[in-house]
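How a chain folds remains the central question behind the approach discussed here. The record that follows shows the chain in one-letter code together with its fold in C-alpha cell form:
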Amino acid sequence: MDGLMSETTERPIRTFHPRRGRMSSRHADAMADVWPRYGLTVLDGDRTPLDLVELFGRDAPRVLEIGFGMGDTTAAMAAADPGRDYLAVEVHTPGIGNLLSLIGERDLTNVRVAHGDAMELVRKLPASSLDAVHAFFPDPWPKARHHKRRLIQPANVALLRDRLRPGGTLHCATDWAHYAQAMAETLDADPGLTNAHGGFAPRPAHRPETKFERRGVGSGREIFDLIYRRT
C-alpha cells in the first residue's frame, strides 16, 4: 500500500499491488460529494510541493497515514485527535470510498485523502513538516524475492525521517514476526532515529485495532509495534 523510489528519476519498485475493487453506492456517493473537498490524486513523478496549510486550511501538527485500508482506524484516530490533521494515502479505491464516507458521516474536517503511491506523496512534502508517520500493517511481502518491495527499507526510512519534525514519531505495526525484526534492524540503523521504548513498544491505547490486526490475532500471530523518534 505504498511505494519505493529514491529521490531521483529512477524507475520505482512498487511495494503495493494496484487494486480496483467494486464500490458500493455509499462509497460512490462519497466520491462524488466528499472527494472534491477532501481528496487529492498523487501523480507519479510530480514533485510540485504540497502546501499543507492550504490543503487543510490551518497550520496544525500533521500525521501521515500510509496505507489506511478501509479507513476505520484513521477515522477513529482523527475523531479522537481534532488538534492534529491527518493526511491518509491509499491505492485501494473501495477503501478510499469508505474513508470518504466516514469523513462525511462524522463531519471530520481534519482528514485529507490521497489516492496513489505513498512515497511519491512524501516527496511532495516539506522537510520537518510531519508530527508523526503511521505505517500500520503494511504488506509484509513474506517471500524472500519480494523483500525489496517492503515499505520499511533504508532509503524510504531516511525520506520519512526527513519529513518528520525533530521529536516526531515513526510508528509501525505488523503481525509478521520476521518483518518486525527486519523493521527493527532497519530503523535501528538509521542515524536520525531513536527507539522510543528500547525494543518493541507496548500496544499504544491510541491505535485502534485494525482488521489486519484482528486477522493476525485470529491466526495466532503476535502483534508488534515499533515507535521511533527523530532526534
